[in-house]
Write a structure and sequence with these properties.
It contains twelve helices and 18 strands. It has helices at 42-45, 93-96, 124-127, 140-146, 149-159, 175-186, 199-207, 218-228, 244-252, 273-279, 290-302, 321-329, and strands at residues 2-8, 11-16, 28-36, 55-56, 61-68, 80-82, 86-87, 107-108, 118-121, 129-130, 167-171, 191-195, 212-214, 234-239, 254-262, 282-285, 314-317, 336-339. Strands 3, 5, 6, 9, 10, 17 and 18 form a seven-stranded mixed beta sheet that branches. The longest helix is centred in the last third of the chain and has 13 residues, at 290-302. It binds zinc ion.
């Protein structure tokens, strides 16, 4: 099969990879209907994370089940399925509490390489959620978004306790930040402030429910949020970048007693103890337990109540994955969908 492989920073190639096979009796193999490039794929692509030899890429996937192992009970060949970027058993205490990425049996899907024609999915019964019917083609991008960016933005909003009567600020205008706005809107937030300085992203932010735009960053951004909230700060802040600046911008934009939901993958962030001590801010986040939200998100999408697939502003054949990475790296595209 064909699949994307990162050889060195800036060097993604689509090449022949071995066809995935059932390796464990709990595995499934799926034929991908669509896959995509994640903002977190840009960390190794930019050399900010080490690249140690050729690495299969991609962890976002939807597709049709081809084959299942002998112990798979619920997932069947022919079903259209959505999974998250961590495989998990979905039965242990941690999974049942809704923290599937911390499942003791969790496996990271990214190492298996979902930017490909086929994918092996471990723990198929726990990891995959089947759609009620085979979805029409126009729903596929939104279902693919549920696999990561929508689920991650949703967790950011839930962790930030977005809800009725709340003012929610969002740091980061990538796909996750934008879908965090959609999530905050669905959860009933009263006011949603997008922190963005990019015109096309501001427009999409408004389509997803943002009521206000703040273009300033850092301390100026914090001052703007405070000015809009009687000097207090937002009740809820979604942090969707993962840098020192964005994390401090999020914490400092939150009012005492408020909540930060941080879902940008943390890179060299260190939090100062004393300001944190006096902030009275709740911090919750981490790798999103997308699996917790998948049934609800699939339902909202198949009933056409939300259209998160709008974050894909570039669609390319899998063979042109390298251009998909370049376009996102250069911020010419918010998110690239790849068709195998
Ligand atoms: Zn588990």
């Amino acid at each position: 099969m064909r699949g994307a492989v990162l050889h060195a920073p800036g060097d993604v190639r689509v090449e022949d990879r071995p066809d995935p096979k059932i390796e464990q009796p709990t595995d499934a193999v799926i034929r991908l209907a669509a896959t995509c490039v994640c903002g977190s794929d840009l960390w190794p692509y930019r050399g900010i994370e080490d690249v140690t030899g050729p690495a299969p890429m991609g962890h976002e996937y939807v597709g049709v089940v081809e084959e299942v192992g002998s112990e798979v009970r619920d997932i069947r060949p022919g079903q259209f399925v959505v999974g998250s970027f961590f495989a998990s058993d979905n039965t242990c205490e941690i999974c049942r509490a809704g923290y599937q990425p911390s499942c003791p049996h969790a496996e990271i899907m990214g190492t298996l390489g979902a930017q490909a024609e086929y994918l092996r999915v471990p723990l198929a019964d726990g990891t995959l959620v089947a759609t009620p019917d085979t979805p029409s083609d126009d729903l596929v991008p939104s279902l693919l978004a549920a696999s990561d960016v929508l689920g991650t933005g949703w967790f950011g909003a839930v962790a930030a306790e977005a809800g009725p009567g709340k003012t929610v600020a969002v740091v980061g205008d990538g796909a996750v930040g934008l879908l965090g706005m959609l999530a905050a809107s669905q959860l009933g937030a009263e006011r949603i402030i997008a922190m963005s300085r990019h015109e096309p992203r501001q427009q999409l932010a408004r389509e997803f429910g943002a009521t206000d735009i703040v273009t300033e960053r850092g301390n100026e951004g914090v001052a703007a949020i405070k000015e809009m909230t009687n000097g207090f700060g937002a009740h809820s802040v979604i942090e969707a970048v993962g840098t020192q600046e964005s994390m401090m911008q999020a914490i400092n934009s939150t009012r005492p007693g408020g909540h930060v939901g941080y879902v940008g993958v943390s890179h060299d962030v260190s939090l100062p103890g004393l300001p944190l001590f006096f902030s009275h801010v709740h911090l919750h986040g981490g790798p999103a337990p997308v699996r917790r939200f998948l049934p609800e998100l699939i339902d909202l999408i198949t009933r056409r109540e939300i259209d998160p697939g709008k974050v894909f502003d570039l669609t390319l054949p899998l063979n042109q994955a390298a251009e998909g990475y370049r376009a996102m790296d250069e911020r010419r595209a918010i998110k690239t969908l790849l068709t195998p």
